[in-house]
Amino acid sequence: MSDTSQLILVISTFLFVMALIALAVWGFKAFFSSNSSGPGFFRARERRLNVVESAVVDAKRKLYLIRRDDKEHLVMIGGPVDMVIETGIEARQPLDHPLEDVVIDHSERPQSDPELS
Question: How far apart are CA 82 and CA 69, in angstroms?
Fold first, then answer.
């Protein structure tokens, strides 16, 4: 009887230690992760490389517009070889909200035409 209870105690202790390790790994990832999409303890550094756009050419080949810093590069991957089609393209800056500084004045409303009534 003591062998069975001792075996259960060893197995439960092992499972408890494994749960503590999993919890520590999860906590480490949550607070020290450099992933910019989620919260983290340390501030993630700014991403320098980004895929701006992609397009399918045929079943094997794809075009990718890749931005590195302030330059964009057009590359084709797949097929027999990967190739750079164009490099050093000036990157377009993201558009700001167009209505950010617009103020609409409702004090002067156009009068309706009496002939149309």
Answer: 22
